[in-house]
């Protein structure tokens, strides 16, 4: 395991930690930092591709659950798990763990941070129908476009990143590790996502279009408000588009914020 390769001295990050696994743990000689800036830097600089951020004119951001894939929500997934296995989803102590055939130290509480929510019997990652095809085709197209910088940005916990990458690759969406960005803490998901986007935006000087694919209605509204701020503050960005994925159906341009002509004139004069 080689740490810090190709990383500037000003940011001696452990790239393995950012991928979700570092065998050295607290004894690692490199920094275990998870700020939006470090996540953005890795996404831009350390994906083993020939992508040049300076040439990107389009930035595409894809949510994972409900947007790219039909993953079950907790209100449906937990009852399904309990009915199919005969075991409780919540395991809070050793007595419950042992009684249900788990090791004494096994615990399971939430849904989105738990690996079992992405496995059988509640989710079959090998089934072609779990991919929302229209959105998956967009991601594949964007990844092959040298003028576009696509990422998958999810509120899933970072220790599930290997699961997410495996699901993507199972459906022929083989993004480099750092183009998939997961949460590291309990920060609000929308706030986490906009903080990461802010850090990336400053590194894409030719950007003129941002597209976001999102299923949660409250996030569509939140990104729409964020888009207005971006278009007002980044004069090179002419358009900010939010595509809403509703029940597996892509609704293009649910929100579309364009720069005013007066602002465009101000850019070029």
Describe this structure in words.
It is a single chain. This protein is of the alpha/beta class and 269 residues long. The protein has 9 helices and 6 strands, in the order ααβαααβαβαβαββα. It has helices at residues 15-19, 36-45, 74-85, 94-99, 133-143, 161-170, 189-201, 217-233, 261-268, and strands at residues 58-62, 148-157, 180-183, 209-214, 239-246, 249-258. It has a 6-stranded mixed sheet, with helices on both faces. A hairpin with a 2-residue loop joins strand 5 and strand 6. Helix 2 crosses helix 7. It is globular, with a radius of gyration of 20 Å. The chain starts with 14 loop residues before the first helix and ends with a helix.
Q: Round the Cα radius of gyration to an integer and report it.
A: 20 Å
Ends: how far apart? Answer: 52 Å
Number of helices: 9
Average pLDDT metric? 86
List keywords for this structure.
269 residues; alpha/beta; six-stranded mixed β-sheet; 6 strands; 34% helix; globular; disordered C terminus
Write the layout of secondary structure elements.
Blueprint: H1 15-19, H2 36-45, E1 58-62, H3 74-85, H4 94-99, H5 133-143, E2 148-157, H6 161-170, E3 180-183, H7 189-201, E4 209-214, H8 217-233, E5 239-246, E6 249-258, H9 261-268
Parallel strand pairs: 1-2, 1-4, 2-3, 4-5
Antiparallel strand pairs: 5-6
Helix pairs in contact: 2-7
What is this structure, in a nutshell?
This protein is α/β, with parallel strands linked by helices and 269 residues long.
């Amino acid at each position: 395991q080689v740490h810090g390769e190709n990383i500037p001295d000003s940011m001696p990050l452990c790239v393995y930690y950012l991928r979700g696994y570092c065998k050295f743990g607290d004894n690692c000689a490199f920094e275990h930092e998870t700020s939006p800036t470090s996540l953005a830097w890795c996404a831009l600089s350390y994906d083993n591709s020939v992508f040049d951020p300076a040439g990107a004119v389009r930035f595409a951001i894809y949510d994972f659950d409900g947007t790219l894939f039909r993953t079950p929500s907790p209100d449906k997934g937990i009852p399904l798990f309990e009915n199919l296995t005969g075991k409780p989803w919540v395991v809070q102590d050793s007595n419950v763990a042992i009684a249900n055939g788990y090791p004494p130290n096994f615990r399971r509480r939430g849904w989105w941070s738990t690996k079992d929510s992405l496995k059988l019997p509640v989710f079959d990652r090998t089934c072609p129908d779990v991919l929302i095809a229209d959105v998956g085709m967009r991601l594949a197209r964007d990844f092959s476009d040298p003028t576009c910088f696509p990422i998958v940005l999810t509120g899933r916990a970072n220790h599930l990143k290997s699961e997410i990458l495996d699901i993507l690759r199972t459906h022929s969406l083989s993004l480099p590790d750092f183009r998939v960005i997961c949460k590291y803490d309990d920060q609000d998901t929308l706030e986490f996502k906009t903080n990461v986007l802010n850090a990336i935006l400053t590194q894409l000087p030719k950007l003129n279009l941002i597209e976001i694919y999102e299923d949660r209605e409250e996030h569509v509204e939140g990104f729409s408000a964020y888009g207005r701020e971006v278009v007002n503050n980044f004069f090179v960005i002419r358009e900010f588009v939010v595509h809403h994925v509703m029940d597996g159906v892509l609704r293009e341009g649910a929100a579309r914020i364009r720069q005013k002509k007066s602002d465009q004139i101000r850019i070029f004069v």
